[in-house]
Design goal:
24% strand, alpha+beta, four-stranded mixed beta sheet, 272 residues, Immunoglobulin-like
Length: 272
């Protein structure tokens, strides 16, 4: 039963660690056809604690992507770009929030820890200008009496919302934690009910009379002495057997020596 409890606890903690793990997308934009090494560290640790590393070729696009899965809340990322064993770029960027995509750019004209932030700002400006131009065109078309197309609305097509993903992960974690706690409570209740249903151990009745107690003690001592006597006899018997074996060996050795002497005497007689 104790083994079942330990297995249940181990599986529960393993499941909790799996649910609490976060996927962090790491995107790097750099020079084409170069080796890109991505090193993921745990933030705030001295000396640095390496969690994982990835080594990829940037290919014809110069863009690489990897997903790191772990339970850390913040991460540090170091990126090395090299060709033929020579380092071209080596940059470290600290304190990223786990679960949110990371966009790193290593180009001569721009080294950035989040190149999507600039792209988002530029996209916002473009969308504003487009909306203004559309409004102006609409007003102009209305004044001339011509028919104009409806204004174009800029939309954000990002595939994931990191805040929503983190919230969903936390909800799953809390649900699983509640289920595990409920299972442990049910297991404890079941064990207690099994223990209560077991019959109580039989009590050993001791004689209340002093004479009877002395007699029982005397009989016990007598039995112990008999057992000791039997043990000594067994030990003596083993010693006797050991001595018999030793005597037999000595006897065979003496017979062998006598036989050698007899043969030597025969040879001497034949020599005379």
């Amino acid at each position: 039963m104790r083994r079942i409890i330990l297995i249940t606890l181990f599986v529960s903690f393993l499941a909790l660690s799996i649910v609490s793990a976060l996927d962090t997308e790491i995107h790097v934009k750099t020079i084409r056809e170069n080796k890109v090494s991505i090193f993921v560290y745990k933030s705030g640790i001295v000396p640095p604690l390496l969690l994982n590393s990835y080594h990829i070729n940037s290919g014809p696009t110069g863009e690489v992507s990897k997903i790191y899965t772990g339970t850390e809340e913040t991460l540090d990322v170091k990126v090395q770009v090299s060709k033929d064993g020579k380092t071209i770029y080596l940059e470290r960027f600290d304190v990223y929030t786990a679960g949110k995509p990371i966009y790193i750019q290593l180009l001569s004209e721009n080294i950035s820890r989040d190149y999507m932030a600039g792209a988002s700002a530029a996209s916002s400006v473009t969308a504003t200008n487009t909306s203004s131009n559309s409004s102006a065109n609409t007003s102009e078309s209305s004044s001339t009496g011509s028919t104009a197309a409806p204004p174009v609305t800029a939309t954000n097509t990002s595939s994931k919302n990191p805040t929503t993903a983190l919230a969903s992960m936390q909800i799953k974690y809390y649900i699983l934690e509640a289920v595990v706690i409920a299972l442990i409570i049910l297991l404890i209740i079941k064990l207690r009910s099994q223990n209560s249903s077991q019959p109580a151990p039989k009590k050993i009745k001791l004689p209340e009379d002093k004479d009877s107690l002395k007699n029982a003690l005397f009989q016990s001592q007598k039995k112990i002495r008999e057992l000791e006597s039997q043990l000594n006899s067994i030990k003596n018997h083993e010693k006797i057997k050991s001595m018999e074996v030793q005597l037999q060996a000595e006897k065979r050795e003496m017979e062998r020596k006598l036989e050698d002497k007899r043969k030597e005497l025969e040879r001497m007689k034949r020599g005379y």
